[in-house]
């Protein structure tokens, strides 16, 4: 894995003062007695207040980025959430990850394993904060800043409409290349759709 260097976009902000930096804001879940009757989502997302409180614990050191395959600027978007700016947080995420809501539900959050707060307490709930930012904005056209390049007249075939194929299609379209996706299933999503149960990844998210 390549060496990670702190983002040079701006100087990391000073940590915000919090009452207990080492204790995670609890993530609410449906009770077992309630969820045994269906296959609906059982993990509730953070409220605005909860998300800001959890994000305020972040030291903005960005050590966690080493564990993120997409190399998201985690410190920047977590601080944006702490400042009450979920749209700004989503803009930061979308620069490197076109499927933020899906990752907010099911990514393996290796970044949290590297969170320095985890050495003495609870790591930042990075995945849940990503989900919060992704769901806090209803109209993504308000935050997407990508502008497609002129049409090149070229086409590229993509085998598989899973997350990798969809991400590639998005990147190619931005470069002026027409993606053509082929998949055995009649709908996009791949393993996300057929391999992950709806109580972990709601179908409406896909």
Write the H/E string, N to C. Answer: HHHHHHHEHEH
Structural class: mainly alpha
Strand order of the largest sheet: 1-2
Question: Can you give the helix content as a percent range?
Answer: 25-40%
* Strand content range: under 5%
The rough form would be described as globular
Low-confidence stretches: 1-10
What's the CATH H-level homologous superfamily of the largest domain?
Alpha-helical ferredoxin
**How many separate domains?**
2
**In the CATH hierarchy, what is the class of the largest domain?**
Mainly Alpha
Average pLDDT works out at 90
Q: Biggest sheet, open or closed, and with what strands and sense?
A: 2 strands, parallel
How far is the N terminus from the C terminus? 30 Å
By DSSP, the count of extended strands is 2
Radius of gyration: 18 Å
| Named CATH architecture of the largest domain | Orthogonal Bundle
What is the topological layout?
Blueprint lengths: L31 H4 L12 H8 L18 H9 L3 H9 L5 H7 L3 H5 L11 H11 L18 E5 L3 H12 L3 E5 L8 H4 L12
Parallel strand pairs: 1-2
Helix pairs in contact: 2-3, 2-7, 3-4, 3-7, 4-7, 5-7
Offer a quick outline of the entry.
This protein has helices at about 30-35, 50-55, 75-80, 85-95, 100-105, 110-115, 125-135, 165-175, 190-195; strands spanning about 155-160, 180.
Describe this structure in words.
The protein has 206 residues and is mainly alpha-helical. 33% of the residues lie in helices and 5% in strands. The protein contains 9 helices and 2 strands; from the N terminus they run αααααααβαβα. A two-stranded parallel ribbon has the order 1-2. α8 (163-174) links the parallel β1 and β2 (178-182). α2 packs across α3, α2 (48-55) packs across α7 and α5 (100-106) packs antiparallel against α7 (126-136). The longest helix has 12 residues, at 163-174. The chain is globular. The two termini are 30 Å apart. Residues 1-10 have low confidence and may be disordered.
């Amino acid at each position: 894995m390549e060496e990670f260097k702190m983002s040079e976009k701006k100087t990391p902000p000073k940590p915000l003062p919090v009452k207990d930096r080492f204790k995670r804001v609890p993530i609410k879940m449906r009770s077992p007695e309630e969820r045994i009757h269906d296959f609906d989502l059982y993990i509730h997302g953070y409220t605005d207040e909860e998300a800001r409180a959890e994000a305020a614990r972040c030291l903005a050191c960005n050590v966690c980025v080493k564990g993120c395959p997409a190399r998201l600027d985690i410190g920047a978007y977590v601080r944006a959430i702490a400042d009450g700016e979920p749209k700004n947080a989503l803009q930061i995420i979308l620069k490197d990850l076109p499927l933020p809501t899906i990752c907010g539900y099911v990514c393996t959050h290796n970044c949290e394993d590297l969170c320095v707060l985890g050495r003495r307490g609870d790591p930042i709930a990075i995945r849940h904060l990503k989900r919060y930012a992704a769901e806090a904005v209803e109209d993504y056209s308000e935050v997407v800043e990508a502008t497609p390049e002129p049409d090149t007249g070229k086409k590229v075939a993509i085998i598989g409409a899973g997350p990798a194929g969809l991400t590639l299609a998005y990147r190619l379209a931005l470069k002026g290349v027409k993606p053509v996706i082929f998949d055995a299933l009649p709908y996009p999503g791949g393993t996300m759709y057929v391999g992950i149960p709806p109580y972990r990844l709601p179908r409406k998210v896909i």
